[in-house]
Every structure is written in structure tokens, then in C-alpha cells.
Design a protein that fits this description.
By secondary structure, the protein is an alpha+beta fold. Helices cover about 10% and strands about 25% of the residues. The strands form 8 sheets. Strands 1, 3, 6, 7, 9, 10 and 12 form a 7-stranded mixed β-sheet that branches. Strands 14, 15, 16, 17, 18 and 19 form a 6-stranded mixed β-sheet that branches. A hairpin with a 5-residue loop joins strand 9 and strand 10. The longest helix has 26 residues. The termini are far apart.
Length: about 500
């Protein structure tokens, strides 16, 4: 008694401390227990058309605990009830809200940082360190599927997705469950989070503590999504695969999607896609197909395209220079191409246009070379070469439009062979028909080469067996012999002369 009286103040202080400790312990226990049993979990309605399509998970600060599902219990023949499979661990955080879903419904969980205006966010936005999974439960809180791990670009189909595409190492089906019972029973999902320690296998990352405060602070964009975003690609007068209709696609969260094929538009060059609605800090910017593909797969841009968005095709007028520089050339198609009119370096240094019967005078101006049987200035037979306006080429029907009678190697020698060669509009292929007079009612000409001044000559006596059949046609200095005189006869509507 004397001891009590002597130490009354000390005993009073210890008693107060003990009461405070008990009270705090009771409070902590009650707070923890509030999110530790199935019946205490707050419900979120996520079924399509009935509830939320997006929900921020930053309230993990309140609704969470460092525990996960006990694999040993799940795959045993013991109870599979939520309260009985709880396993304490500091490397996992369970989002302690039961999310009401429907079998076949797609969902994803996005963890991302905000983008910067030009370069995007940090590369650790999602998928590199943060992983998530879901447990699927029936109406009464019994687990019917234990999901494998997903990165932020991963998706999940309730009642359908299996663990074959992960390194989780477990089938996911508790003892006694299969795909059919799972699809019939599933009513809820409960998400679980962890850091990635290099792979997705069971137990990976056990040594990496994860705290709910870090998750909420690290990822300003931390959201569960079941309603996909719609991306609309406005072709703006162009076409993709022959259609001018806008191209639309749906994207659930930040799953990887592909950019549509590059559109085309006659007379224009495609310069990129402009983000014209939403798009976060990227709105109003223009990206080419490659850059946009990066935006749709690189975690740095997740928050910019985290909504419905419209992309408008951008065009620059194109010039078809060949359409006016060719001016009727035979080979215009060789130079047919589109050029970007806004680009200074798009002009060709030279166009090697060809036009049968003409020669180029000033790029796109032609001087006529073919004037069949134009006798002006040549009727006197005096041997004077006519003006250039009466020169002509001699072409064969065989071989097409570029086969002309040509003096071999443009030689000046007597006996140089006359041959067939591609028309190049050179002087060795140009001839003057000099009228030599009538004989037996037929007109005759001497055919003089414009390059050498010599005339076409039949090498009489050099043919087969010394006769004229097979005699060579050559050039020779003019001597007025009959073997240098030629007459012309119509060979049909499709031929000019022979």
C-alpha cells in the first residue's frame, strides 16, 4: 500500500499509457479489419451500361492492405473464401474493393505519369516496374480464378483470359474449378499490385516492398478502365485502301494499337496526323506515321491519348513537273512522279525526254524533224541539201517507234553500213530526199545522209551468188548511178513509206 502511495504518479502515468496503447491497438485492428473480410469490402459497379467505365485507383491510399492471395490455399481442397486465402506480405498491395463485372468484359489497369509537352513523360511510366493482376470471385466471395501478372499495357477478359501467356507458373483454376464453372460463377474481381523484379514468375519481387502511398504518388494516372477509347482518323479528303471513310479504332487504356495505313490523295503529299481533339499536351501537334506509332506504344505518351481522340490527315500540294515539262514527249512516263511543292530540293536536274521525229531546242520546245516526202527545195535534183525543215528519219514498222535507218558509228567512209538502230534524232539518222526525176512514170529520189553528205547505195553484185538478192545497203559518195536512186510506194495505211 505504501508502495502504491509512494509511486501513485508513476502508476497513474503507466496506466494512461497502457490505455492509450490498447485504444490505438483496437483502432488499428478495427481499421485493418475493415478491409480484411469479404463482407466489409466496398463494392464498385463496373458492368457495362450500369456503372463506371473508369475509376481512379488513387484511393488505394484508403482501400488497400499489404496482403495477397495464398497460393497454397487456392490450389488445395480447403476453403477458397476470400477471408481464408489472405496472405500477409509487404511485396503486394491488394486493392480492397470488390469490382462488380460481367463475364466476357474487358478491363485494364493503367499506371502512368503525366506527359511533358514535347518529349512525353519518363520511360518508367508503365510496364517497366509496375505489375497488376486480378482474382475473380463468385457472388459469395469464393475465388474462381487466380490471374497471372500484367503490365500496364496488358488487358484482361473476365472469365476468359488464362495464364498461358504469362510466366506466373499456375493454371489459375482453384481446386474444383474449370473454365465452365468459372464463367458461370464469376461476379467480381479484386486487383492486386506489385513491382516487377525482372519477370512475371510466381514469387518474383518478393523482396521489393510496395506501399500504397508510393503507388498513388508515383502514378498520377492510376486508373481501372472497362470502357475503351475511340480514336477517329479523319482522312481529310484522302483515302485508305480505296475508301474515303474515316478510320476508327478502339483502344482499351494503353494497349498497343497500330496506326492506319498511310492515306493517299491525288495531287497531294501526306505530311502527318494532327491531333485535333483531346490528346492532352500533344493536342494540335502533327506527327508522321512513325512518330504516331511510337506514341501509341511508348509509355511516355500514355496520358496524352488517355481519352477519345481525333487525328486529322495533313496534306501538302504536289506538283507533277513532268506534266508540263514533257510537252508531248514519248517517254513522259519515265519521269512521272509527285513532288512536294513546299520542298526546295524537289526539282530534277535534267529530264531526258524523247519525241520521235523531233529534237529538243530549249528543254520543252521541239523542232520538227520528220516531214515525209516534203519536196520543197529538192525538186531541181541539183544535189543541194535542202533546209533542216525537210529532213526526215526513215523508220521501220518492225521494232516499234524507236527503230531508224542509221549509218553505223556515224562513219564518213564509203561503204559504211546502213543499219537499224534506236532512234536518237541524231544527224546520222536524218536524210534529205533529193528529187532525181521521173523514169517510166515513177518518181525517183536520191536519199542523202545529213551527217556525211553521202547517199544510200545498193551494193549491186555483192549479193547471194554474185547477184542482187541479199545485196547490202550502204552509203557512198553520190555518182548518179541507178543503184543510188529510190522510189517510194505505199505499203498500207499503217506505214508511211518503204
Amino acid at each position: 500500500m505504501q508502495f502504491i502511495k509512494k509511486h501513485k504518479k508513476l502508476i497513474t502515468m503507466l496506466t494512461a499509457v497502457l490505455l492509450i496503447a490498447v485504444s490505438l491497438g483496437t483502432y488499428v485492428s478495427q481499421t485493418w479489419a475493415a478491409y480484411d473480410t469479404w463482407n466489409s469490402l466496398v463494392e464498385l459497379e463496373f458492368r457495362t451500361g450500369l456503372g463506371e467505365g473508369q475509376h481512379s485507383l488513387t484511393d488505394v491510399m484508403t482501400y488497400s492492405g499489404n496482403y495477397t492471395n495464398d497460393v497454397g490455399e487456392i490450389y488445395s481442397d480447403r476453403s477458397h473464401f476470400f477471408d481464408d486465402i489472405r496472405l500477409d506480405t509487404m511485396s503486394r498491395v491488394t486493392y480492397a474493393r470488390k469490382v462488380r463485372v460481367a463475364s466476357g468484359q474487358r478491363l485494364t489497369i493503367v499506371a502512368a505519369q503525366e506527359d511533358t509537352a514535347d518529349a512525353g513523360g519518363l520511360t518508367e511510366n508503365a510496364g517497366l516496374q509496375f505489375y497488376w493482376s486480378v482474382g475473380e470471385y463468385d457472388e459469395n466471395g469464393n475465388i474462381v480464378f487466380d490471374g497471372g501478372w500484367r503490365s500496364s499495357s496488358g488487358t484482361w477478359i473476365v472469365g476468359v483470359t488464362e495464364n498461358g501467356d504469362t510466366g506466373y507458373g499456375k493454371s489459375g483454376y482453384p481446386n474444383g474449378e474449370d473454365i465452365n464453372t468459372r464463367q458461370n460463377k464469376v461476379r467480381y474481381v479484386v486487383p492486386i499490385f506489385r513491382w516487377n523484379n525482372g519477370d512475371e514468375s510466381a514469387g518474383s519481387g518478393d523482396d521489393l516492398t510496395i506501399r500504397k502511398e508510393i503507388i498513388a504518388n508515383k502514378f498520377p494516372v492510376f486508373t481501372m478502365i472497362t470502357d475503351p477509347f475511340t480514336y477517329t482518323f479523319n482522312l481529310n479528303g484522302g483515302q485508305v485502301n480505296g475508301s474515303g471513310s474515316a478510320v476508327t479504332m478502339q483502344r482499351l487504356g494503353i494497349e498497343n494499337v497500330s496506326v492506319p495505313a498511310t492515306p493517299t490523295r491525288p495531287g497531294y503529299v501526306f505530311t502527318g496526323w494532327k491531333i485535333t481533339s483531346t490528346g492532352g499536351k500533344q493536342a494540335g501537334k502533327v506527327y508522321d506515321a512513325g512518330q504516331l506509332a511510337t506514341m501509341l506504344s511508348d509509355s511516355k505518351y500514355y496520358s496524352s491519348l488517355f481519352a477519345n481522340a481525333t487525328f486529322e490527315a495533313q496534306w501538302s500540294h504536289a506538283d507533277q513537273f513532268v506534266s508540263y515539262m514533257g510537252n508531248g514527249a514519248d517517254n513522259m512516263s519515265d519521269f512521272y512522279r509527285f513532288y512536294n511543292a513546299a520542298y526546295d530540293g524537289n526539282t530534277a536536274e535534267s529530264f531526258l525526254f524523247k519525241r520521235t521525229g523531233y529534237t529538243s531546242v530549249s528543254g520543252s520546245t521541239w523542232e520538227i524533224k520528220d516531214q515525209f516526202l516534203n519536196l520543197t527545195g529538192g525538186c531541181d535534183g541539183g544535189g543541194t541539201l535542202p533546209s533542216s525543215g525537210t529532213l526526215t528519219s526513215i523508220r521501220t514498222k518492225c521494232g516499234g517507234r524507236y527503230q531508224c535507218v542509221d549509218i553505223s558509228a556515224a562513219s564518213y567512209a564509203d561503204g559504211a553500213n546502213a543499219q537499224i538502230w534506236d532512234c536518237v534524232n541524231g544527224n546520222a539518222q536524218m536524210y534529205a530526199f533529193v528529187f532525181a526525176g521521173f523514169e517510166d512514170g515513177l518518181p525517183y529520189w536520191v536519199i542523202r545522209n545529213n551527217a556525211t553528205g553521202k547517199v544510200l547505195d545498193a551494193a549491186i553484185g555483192t549479193g547471194i551468188d554474185g547477184g542482187n538478192n541479199g545485196a547490202n545497203i550502204q552509203q557512198w559518195a553520190y555518182h548518179g548511178g541507178d543503184n543510188q536512186k529510190w522510189t517510194l510506194q505505199m505499203a498500207g495505211w499503217s506505214s508511211a513509206a518503204r
